Amino acid sequence: MASLHELADGGALFWSQGEGKQTFRLIVLRSGDDVFGYVNRCAHFGVPLAEKVEQLIFKPSQSLSCNVHYARYGWRDGSCQDGECDGEGLLLVPLEARDDAVVISAPQ
Q1: 28 with 22: CB under 8 angstroms?
Q2: How far apart are CA 96 and CA 108, in angstroms?
Q3: Is residue 20 classed as helix, strand or coil in its secondary structure?
Q4: In this model, does residue 6 exceed pLDDT 70?
Q5: Could you tell me the residue range of the domain that residue 58 belongs to?
Q6: Positive or negative: CA dihedral 82, 86, 87, 90
């Protein structure tokens, strides 16, 4: 999926697989040795949080925001922190770092 060394501490990257409407888009975040993955879809409005990683609005290791309505979500749990997403959160995809690889892990 991704290599841990490709992702700076406090950084984000996009990962996708598939084509067209069948594309699965994921945002991968890193905080130290911890990695977090979320489906690239705003819980409030249903649009991608950003189309490119360069457009992603985030505070390293703290929060990320939708660049359409600026709903803000927690870095570690995807929960709504501010905006019109109250009571909603990002869809978590469990990830873990194994050696240098970031992989999807089994939910706990």
Answers
A1: no
A2: 12
A3: helix
A4: yes
A5: 2-104
A6: negative
What is the reported pLDDT for 106?
77
Structure tokens at 69: 């309505």
Positive or negative, the CA dihedral 35, 14, 61, 48 is negative
User: What are the Cα distances from residue 73, in Å, to 6, 14, 92?
Assistant: 23, 17, 12
In this predicted structure, the answer to whether residue 108 has a pLDDT above a threshold of 70 is no
CATH number of the CATH domain containing 88: 2.102.10.10
Structural domains in the chain (count): 1
- pLDDT, tens digit, for every residue of 52-71? 999 999 999 999 999 998 99
Instruction: Summarize the chain as % helix, strand, coil (round to 5).
Output: 10, 45, 50
CA angle 93, 25, 75 (to 5 degrees): 50
Chain mean position to CA 10 = 12
Q: How confident is the model at residue 18 (pLDDT cuts 50, 70, 90)?
A: confident
